[in-house]
Design a protein that fits this description.
about 260 residues, alpha+beta, five-stranded antiparallel β-sheet, four-stranded antiparallel β-sheet, 4 helices, about 25% strand, binds 2-amino-4-trifluoromethylsulfanyl-butyric acid, binds cobalt (II) ion
């Protein structure tokens, strides 16, 4: 299927993105010390379903021999980078750093976004990690316009983070989105000479998602078949938005949940 979305599809994506952002906001508000992760998942699902959207991660398989994703929202705590699972015995604690990553289908089109929430008291280093990860996403999307290269996005994210000595996760990357949960092209958060040179075109829809750690960039998968953790158990942060490429720049498909 074409990686270019029509103006009609972009309008539908924006409606879905607004619903998704509200569902994420509900999950963020529910993410407090003592909250159960399954409760946060339920709140997110009810929010999007009440507006006519469906969870896109529920039942999703990365490849056909992988397990199906069991929830609506990925909840990744502390050294968990992404794809963490909500389970009845996982309770949010004071001092947790919680990545919330959510996707929906609306009118046949998929959107994807994430935010990291700090629960209660954490060190200033952790606060900076979360703020800097968000800012790296802002830097990455700021270079988007038709004619720019995917590697311009990668370079903008990386050059903001690199001097700060963070780990930039390499095994997972941003991606096209819209007709499927994951589409081409890949959008790494670092300059990768092995990546093909791809120019952005008007109507491309991309999920940009830096994953950043306080330590090393290397990650591993837990034996639940989903959760990605830092190998050195350092704390990680993750932010994601879906955008559409325009002639002049980009249009935000998933409004920032923390900006009114
Ligand atoms: N936003 C996540 C990503 O792009 C979506 C994961 S799909 C899931 O990696 F099924 F794993 F949740
Ligand atoms: Co994504």
């Amino acid at each position: 299927m074409s990686l270019i979305k029509t103006p009609v599809e972009i309008e539908k994506l924006k409606l879905g993105g607004a619903i998704l952002s509200r569902a994420l906001r509900c999950a963020m508000d529910a993410c407090v010390a003592g909250a159960s992760t399954v409760e946060i998942d339920r709140i997110a699902r009810e929010s999007m379903e009440s507006e006519g959207a469906k969870p896109s991660f529920l039942g999703y398989q990365i490849s056909s021999d992988d397990p199906e994703y069991p929830g609506t929202i990925c909840i990744s705590i502390n050294d968990e980078v992404v794809h963490g699972l909500a389970t009845p015995n996982r309770i949010i604690k004071d001092g947790d750093v919680v990545g919330l990553d959510i996707g929906c289908w609306y009118e046949g089109l998929a959107t994807d976004m994430a935010s990291t929430v700090i629960v209660g008291d954490v060190s200033s280093k952790v606060k900076e990690l979360v703020a800097d990860t968000r800012e790296s996403l802002v830097r990455g999307i700021s270079v988007i316009k038709a004619g720019a290269l995917i590697s311009d996005i990668s370079g903008a994210v990386e050059s903001y983070l690199k001097p700060k000595k963070y780990g930039i996760v390499r095994d997972l990357v941003g991606h096209g989105v819209g007709h499927a949960v994951h589409e081409e092209p890949q959008v790494p958060n670092f300059k990768d000479p092995r990546q093909p040179k791809i120019r952005l075109k008007e109507g491309m829809v991309l999920a940009i998602e830096p994953m950043v750690t306080l330590g090393d960039w290397r990650v591993a998968q837990k034996n639940d078949g989903w959760t990605i953790v830092t190998r050195d158990h350092s704390i990680a942060a993750h932010f994601e938005v879906t955008i559409a490429v325009t002639a002049e720049g980009y249009e935000l498909i998933t409004p920032w949940p923390d900006v009114k």
